[in-house]
Amino acid sequence: MIPHLGTTELIVILVIVILIFGVNKIPQLGKGLGEGIRNFKSSLKAAKEEPPAKEEKS
């Protein structure tokens, strides 16, 4: 079961992230996370489009 996160919990998480990484690092983290998600989705899409390779036994 996925716990429900309310506004208070999200604010606390945001404050902790700011304390750990600092204000200047947050945009870099967001950019890196976005690029990672984009690459993951594109690789999943490419894997679905390619037929599975046949393994050759010697």
What does this 3D model show about the protein?
The protein has helices at 7-21, 26-49. 67% of the residues lie in helices and 0% in strands. It has a domain at 20-45. It has 2 helices and no strands. The longest helix has 24 residues, at 26-49. The protein is an all-alpha fold. The radius of gyration is 19 Å and the shape is elongated.
Would you summarize the structure shown here?
With 58 residues, the chain is mainly α. The protein contains two helices and no strands. The model has no long low-confidence stretch (mean pLDDT 84).
Beta-strand segment tally:
0
- Please identify the structural class as seen in this structure: mainly alpha
Task: Give the rounded overall mean pLDDT.
Answer: 84
Estimated helix fraction: 55-70%
Largest sheet: number of strands, sense, barrel closure: none
* Tally of helical runs: 2
In percent, how much strand structure appears in the residues? Answer: under 5%
Q: Which oligomeric state applies?
A: single chain
CA-based gyration radius: 19 Å
The low-pLDDT segments are none
Order of helices and strands: HH
What would the principal axes of the Cα set say about the shape? elongated
N→C terminal distance: 48 Å
